[in-house]
Each structure stands twice: as structure tokens, then as C-alpha cells.
Amino acid sequence: MEQKQINTMLALSGTSIRSPFLDGYTGVKTIGVYERFTFQDGTEGLAQKTRPLSTMTERFSLSFFDQTGFSYVVNKEGDVVIRSLHPNSNRTFQNLFDIIDLQGNDQTDLDIFKTRLKDSKTGAVQFQYQGEDYIFCYVPLLSGDNWNIVSIIPNRIIMQQADSIIKQSILLCLLIMLCMAGIGFLYHHSRKKHQKEIEKLAFYDELTGLYRYEKFLLDGQLLLKDKERMVAVLYLDIMGFKLLNDMEGYGYGDQVLLFVADILRSVAQEEAISCRISGDDFILLIPYKSRARVIALCKKILELTANGIDHAHEIHLRIGVCLQEDADTDSTISTLVDRARMAQTSIHDDSATAWQFYNQEMRQLLLRDAEMEQHMEQALKDGEFLHVIQPKYSLDGSRILGGEALLRWQRSGSGYTSPAEFIPLFEKNGFIRKLDAFVFASVCQTIQERISQKKCIVPISVNVSRIHLYQEDFADSYIAIKNRYHIPDGIIELELTESILLKNTKEIFNILEKLRQNGFCCSIDDFGSGYSSLNALKDLPVDVVKLDRVFFDQSSHVERNKTILKSMITMAKQLDMKVVAEGIEYTQQLDMLKDTGCDMVQGFIYAKPCSVEDFYQRLESEAAS
């Protein structure tokens, strides 16, 4: 090895490849790999492994791209270090740049190629070579002399390979598209089937197969838009259906509902729409030409349903009707339904027919309700709402034992408005919640004032509406008001109607127990007015039972009613409940309560509802005497 080469290798570090040289011992052109190292004593050494260049050339003659591609190893100046033996390669040239330049290639591309080789960059470029376009791919090698391997491939071969890949890719894409189309078809079919199932659940009544109300509104509104014809809405209710369910069982009740649904289908015209809106209520929407035809349809429905399924139980319907011509011009289907329902609820046992048309009188009631709704909030702010108290007396009328707070509306400029007019409306629109809370807070405030003045007090009951009881914060809000006014336990009694207590029992019972644990008394109002029984009484978490006035009607069954009364009162006493008889107006009714153990009497026989001031004045007069 020449000293110049040794000095060059010593100047470098690590491992590198030595440029081909003529071996002084063998006389053969050789290539070698060297590595610098250090002995343990610190002396530097140089190890070299060599092999004839011809063996490397043979190995380097391997071809690729279907035997059309070949490679050279060149240094950064383009000089060939190792040439290829491939038949397509040039075996005579010494510098790669020279043969590229001789082919008439663009000088700018050649200059970029030279620069990138010198900088040991990786890349590819297209040049003319031997009259054909070739791709020159270059990659730097680990070498002390900045060697690069340059692979040369005919461009047509690469494009053939690319065409093959493109064709395969297109075929693969077609297969994927076919699979996706199949998946899409299956998804669409499954989605359509699933959508139909959802629509069936959402739009069709599970029992009868009739429309649900939402679907009825959608299709009905389309009929309403047709200006060429008028439509009528019939609202049908099965009378006594709950009792029928209780007597014959729910299975028979379902048969009755199916029976009515089938009749509606049979009598309805092709364009009619029928719907089951709730438990035993149905709606029928029909195009009509005359009022007489609608009446004829009502008669036919009543006739077909009268005998029932098996002639064992008569089925009685009440039908409310709203004709489009009787409603406002801008009425919607839901408006027609509401007015047909109003007509249906106006039918009484002594009505001449089992059907009723919506009329102007009902319209006036709607206008009255709208006017009250318009003023209700301001009326509460202006103090137009107030409460009066009806005393509860001992059976002999000698002492006031309590009172019931009753809501009144004294309108400025309009005078007194009956509770029968505004309470049902406010229960429907939810405003009753504010009025319940207002009365309760007013009662608490009065009691607190009397306690602070060391004046006598008695338990006062306040009514709680159904929708207020179901408010999530109802119990907590009432407990907070009671505590704010420091009301003693047992002084406030909350009255709930029988129908509230006999529904959603677990939820309601939990609320009542919470109230009782916080010092409230609870009472059941109008007990006996519905389907309650003595057996139900034992499960109710209440402290007071108020017997409905139905037990005190002047009838020929006085003795029987008295027996029932005595049984109810006896059981209530055994359950540690107090008993109040309400609606007592006559001495004959009072006589029925003798020897029954009834605790209190509430009614006109002793006192009508009076102002808060009058009530406490009576209480003080009684205490003074």
C-alpha cells in the first residue's frame, strides 16, 4: 500500500471502502475495506481486507426489471469505480457524466444531477441513453471517497410495470366497488326494513293497528290543505271502559278496543283516517259534504257498537264532532281534535243524543279561557288572587277544629270569577302550580304572624294539584317554605284527591312519606268518589280521610249508606286516621253521622267559606267563650 493512501485512511475515522488500486504483490486490480482501531497501549492501527475487483464486478452484474436494468458505482466526479457487465451497459466509458452529455441531454438537468451526486443525495432523473429514455436512480454508499450507486432502467420497462400495476389496481377497484355496491344494497335493504319497523312502532298503535296521534296529525294536515273539500273530526270515548276492564279483565278490554277499531275501519271512507289517541279514546277524520251525512255516520257507529262483542256487555260511545266549517279558517288538525274533544266532554247522561257538535257556545268558552290566560300572570302580581277558609267543626258544631284554604279570584273591573271556571283551565296550562304555592305561602305567613302574636291557631289544609305533585322539587320546596315560616309540625295539612293517590302509587307514596317525616299531615279528598275501596284505605300513607258528599245524597238508601259510612269510619279509626265529612248541608245528613265516630264536619250546615279575618275572629270568639 502506498504511503499516500495510508495517510489518507489514517486521516479518516471508522470504517470505509478503499478505491480500486493495483495490488503491488499480486499485480491485480483490487478493492478493499479498511477500519481504524486502537490497541490497548494506545497505539493506532489500520486493518484492511481486500478482494479482486473482478469478483465484485461479476457480483455487481446482477440485473433487475426483467434483465433490463443495470448499475454502476461512481464517485462524486462521475468516474466509474465498478462497472456493470450487463450487455446493455457501456463497458468503455470512464465517466458517467460524459456519456450523458454526449447523448444531447439538457444541460440544466445534468448540472443538477452532478451537484446531487457530489452532495451524496438520493434521487432519480430521466436522461437519453443509447437512443432511448432511461431512468437514472442514485443512492450514496458508505465510502471514504463519496461513492454512489447509479441504477439505470429503461423508461418503457418502468411504464410497462406501471401499466400492469394500474390495470391490477383498476381491477381491484372494480372488485372493491362491486363489493361496496353489494354492501350498499344490503345496507339500504336492511335500513329500509328497519325504518319500516321503526315507522310501524312510531306511527301505528301496537294493539289496534290504527294510526298513532303523530301519524294522524301528519296525514290529516295534508287532507286539511285540500281546499276542494271539507273535513270533520270525530272524537270517540268508550263510556265505563275502566269499570269494564276491572270486571272482565284486561284481555276482554283489549278485545273491546279491537272491536271498536274494526268498526271504524268498516264505516270509514277510503280517504278517512282513524287513530287511537289514548286508552279508550279514538279519533276519526273524514271528508264530508253535509252535516246530515256526519250525523248518519255517528248513528251508524253507535248502532254497530251498541251490542258489544258477544251481546254480553253493551258498549256505549260518546262522540264529539268538529266540522271544519264551524272552526276558524286557520285551524290546524290538532285544533279540530281539541274542539271535537271539547264537544265530547260536554255530553252528559241526560243529553238527548250520544253525539255533540262543536258550536259557538263552546267557542265563547274558548275565548273566555284565552282571556283568562292572557291576564292570569298580571292578576297574581296585582293581588287579585286570594284565599278564603271554610271552617271544619266538631260533629256537634260547638268547636272549630280546623279549616280548609280555598282559592278565589276577585278580578278588578270584572268581579268574582268562579273557581269552576278558572281552576280546570289553570290545571291544564300548568299555572295552578304557582297558585298552589301562593296559597300555601299565604297560609304559612298568616300562621306565623298569629304565633308571633301568641294568638290561637288550628290546623289548616291546602289543596295540591296533580301536576304540582309531580314536580321534581315539589316536596323540597314545600318543606323549605314551612321551615322558612317556622310552622309547627301537624299544623299544615296537604289535601290530595283520591284519583291522584290511586295512580303511580310507589312514586306518590315516597313523596307523601317525605312530607310526613317533615311535619306535614296528608289527607285524601273526595274519598269514595271513584273506584276506591275499603281495602285500598289500609295502604294509603295519609292521616286524614275526607268522605265524599256522594255518601250523603238524599236518597232512598239512607240506611245502607249509613252502614257503609260506619264501616269506612271504623276502619279509618283502626288505622289511626281522622275522618272529615265534607259537603254537609242538611240536618238529615248530619243525623247519618251520629254514632259513627266522625271527627269533623265541613259544610254549609255550620259555615260557608269566609275571609281569613272572619275565620280567625270566629276562632278567637270561641276561645274567649
Describe the protein's architecture and organization.
By secondary structure, the chain is of the alpha/beta class. It folds into 3 domains: 3-55, no CATH class; 213-358, Alpha-Beta Plaits (2-Layer Sandwich); 384-624, EAL domain (TIM Barrel). 45% of the residues lie in helices and 23% in strands. The strands form 4 sheets. It has an 8-stranded mixed barrel, surrounded by 4 helices. A 5-stranded antiparallel β-sheet has the order 5-4-8-7-6. Strands 10-11-9-12-13 form a 5-stranded mixed β-sheet, with helices on both faces. The model has no long low-confidence stretch (mean pLDDT 84).
Output the structural class: alpha/beta
User: What is the overall silhouette?
Assistant: elongated
Counted beta strands: 22
Q: Quote the CATH topology of the largest domain.
A: TIM Barrel
First-to-last CA distance: 142 Å
Strand order of the largest sheet: 14-15-17-18-19-20-21-22
Q: Helical residue percent?
A: 40-55%
Low-confidence stretches: none
- The count of domains is 3
Mean pLDDT over the residues? 84
**Annotated CATH architecture of the largest domain:** Alpha-Beta Barrel
Tally of separate helices: 21
| Major sheet summary line | 8 strands, mixed, barrel
Strand content: 15-25%
Classified by CATH, the class of the largest domain is: Alpha Beta
Please name the fourth-level CATH homologous superfamily of the largest domain.
EAL domain
What is the CA-based Rg, rounded? 51 Å
